[in-house]
């Protein structure tokens, strides 16, 4: 495992999954004697596998984790800085029945670059079938090419820590006696692109004014009330004070932008069902 972030997880967070597997199963690695889940190579090296999801509780099966051979694993992680069209060409290669190890054996680098440039230019490229394989959809086709996903919490399949489920959030919303403004904060956040918003955006959309400090205060108080109702333990700052917003969202500082909060999926689903104009 490289010392690099992936899918919104730091390398330190990623590194915990291997000892966790050993502790849970008593085995060094999962997927013993299984072929590569991407190209189907039956000679996948023991101990070579990939995770899309490093949140707890850990899961060692698809769609959280997959057995991968070294070439497929390397190409998957290098897709963000690959040459134009190269990742798509590799996907076409394995979908045509090619093993990951054969990608550089069957075509020279100039040939691969030429095909990649065709793909990047919008031309359709079809490769000859190497081995028969079952038709898609294939799980790797849903992987993003956005390099921001390496660090952003919106890329995580699940929150780092388990959150209450949708039903629990819906009940808490009912018991909280939400005002129209409370509901507006929740709905705007849930419906934002990638469930991600700054406090400035929430202030503009939910309050009708550019006042992120007030939005932070009011939304934080709402999150605190919900945290108490759900009896959930919030994240803590270095000084030990609670981060009430951690119930509803996970935050990060993107480069050259204001702090962003990504609403957790269960809270977002519950918030989308709130009725507009229904206040306590």
Explain the overall architecture.
The chain is mainly alpha-helical and 280 residues long. It folds into two domains: 11-151, no CATH class; 166-272. Helix content is 38%, strand content 7%. The chain contains eleven helices and seven strands. The strands form three sheets. A three-stranded antiparallel sheet has the order 3-7-6. α7 (166-176) packs across α10. The radius of gyration is 22 Å and the shape is elongated. The model has no long low-confidence stretch (mean pLDDT 95).
- Shape by Cα distribution: elongated
The computed structural class is mainly alpha
Bin the strand percentage: 5-15%
| Total beta strands | 7
Radius of gyration: 22 Å
Number of alpha- plus pi-helical segments: 11
Distance between the termini: 51 Å
Overall pLDDT:
95
**Strand count, sense and closure of the main sheet?**
3 strands, antiparallel
Instruction: Flag low-confidence runs.
Output: none
Count of spatially separate domains: 2
State the helical fraction: 25-40%
Q: How do the SSEs run, as a string of H and E?
A: HHEEHHHHHHEHHEEEEH
Strand arrangement in the largest pleated sheet: 3-7-6
Note the main attributes of this structure.
elongated; mainly alpha; 11 helices; 3-stranded antiparallel beta sheet
In summary, what is this structure?
The protein has 280 residues and is mainly alpha-helical. It has helices spanning 11-15, 17-25, 70-77, 86-95, 103-106, 109-120, 166-176, 180-191, 199-207, 212-230, 265-272, and strands spanning 49-51, 65-67, 196-197, 235-236, 242-243, 249-252, 260-263.
């Amino acid at each position: 495992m490289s010392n690099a972030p992936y899918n919104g997880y730091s390398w330190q967070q990623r590194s915990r999954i291997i000892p966790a597997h050993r502790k849970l199963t008593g085995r060094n690695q999962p997927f013993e004697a299984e072929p590569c889940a991407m190209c189907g190579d039956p000679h996948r090296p023991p101990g070579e596998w990939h995770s899309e999801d490093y949140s707890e509780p850990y899961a060692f099966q698809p769609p959280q984790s997959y057995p991968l051979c070294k070439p497929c694993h390397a190409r998957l992680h290098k897709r963000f800085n690959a040459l134009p069209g190269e990742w798509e060409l590799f996907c076409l290669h394995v979908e045509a029945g090619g093993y990951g190890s054969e990608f550089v054996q069957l075509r020279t680098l100039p040939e691969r670059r030429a095909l990649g440039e065709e793909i990047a230019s919008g031309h359709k490229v079809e490769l000859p079938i190497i081995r028969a394989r079952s038709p898609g959809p294939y799980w790797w086709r849903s992987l993003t090419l956005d390099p921001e996903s390496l660090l952003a919490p919106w890329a995580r399949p699940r929150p780092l820590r388990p959150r209450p489920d949708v039903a629990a959030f819906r009940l808490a919303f009912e018991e909280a006696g939400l005002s129209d403004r409370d509901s507006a904060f929740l709905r705007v956040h849930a419906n934002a692109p990638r469930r991600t918003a700054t406090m400035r955006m929430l202030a503009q959309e939910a309050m009708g004014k550019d006042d992120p400090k007030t939005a932070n205060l009011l939304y934080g108080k709402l999150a605190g009330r919900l945290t108490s109702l759900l009896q959930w333990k919030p994240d803590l700052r270095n000084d030990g004070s609670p981060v009430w917003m951690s119930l509803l969202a996970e935050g990060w500082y993107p480069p050259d932008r204001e702090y962003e909060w990504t609403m957790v999926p269960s809270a977002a689903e519950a918030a989308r069902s709130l009725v507009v104009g229904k206040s306590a």
